[in-house]
Amino acid sequence: MTPATLFDPAALGIVLGGTLLATALRTPLRDVAHALLALRILPRRRFRAEPRLEQIAMLDRLAQRHGVHALDRSVIRDADVAAAVALIVDGAQPDAVAEALDTARRLRMERHRIAADCWTGVAEVAPAMGMVGTLIGLIAMFTRMSDPQAIGAAMAIALLATLYGALLANLVAMPIAVRLRTAARAEATERARLLGPLVAIAIREAPRARRHPRLLDPVPADEPSEHLVHEEAA
């Protein structure tokens, strides 16, 4: 037996086409697209908070030395950290900073959950589509019993459709869903570590800025370039 004997375009088309159609009918197309885009995160390294914590510590020292408005000139690639720093620069209360970070984290978790649920749905549907292919193959076989060659082709569809459905569910869709959920939980745990240091800056800088309005003045243009804090790639 060669690998070519395990390939049947008709059976594969029934399983893939049926699974895609069923997934599109039960899931909004926007969520399906998001589930496909989520595949990009699988080859990446797991999210780590350390590079961002180091950057937050540098931002903290910068704010203490030159005032909170110096943070406006910092290069921050992480969207959540950048949004929190913008709130701190604007003089937001610590509770507002904490709420913004928590909301961003929950929204990110929800996006990951939607993507994982979509792939779980694929894993649920694929075996059923395999059975549909099997039934189609059996029907084709019984309606052409007088043609031995046609019986073989129909039987191949019937058997391979079941195989394709099982492989798609257990070797593709379900592992992707599990990995997405694992990555989402790990990222949520790591991002929770960013909350404390950023809120601490907000607690210190909000009353300090009110007592000393001059601290809100921008950093002079001739200050050293160390104010541009670059985040280490995650």
TrEMBL record:
- All copies of domain MotA/TolQ/ExbB proton channel, residue ranges: 81-190
Kindly give the Pfam families that the UniProt entry links to this protein: MotA_ExbB
Q: Where is the composition biased (Basic and acidic residues)?
A: 224-234
Membrane association type = Multi-pass membrane protein
Q: Where in the cell is it found?
A: Cell membrane
From the record, give the transmembrane residue ranges. 6-25, 114-139, 151-173
GO CC annotations?
plasma membrane
Instruction: Spell out the residue ranges making up region: Disordered.
Output: 214-234
Q: In terms of domain of life, where is this protein from?
A: Bacteria
The UniProt similarity line reads: Belongs to the MotA family.
Q: What is this protein called?
A: Biopolymer transporter ExbB
Source organism (scientific name): Sphingomonas taxi
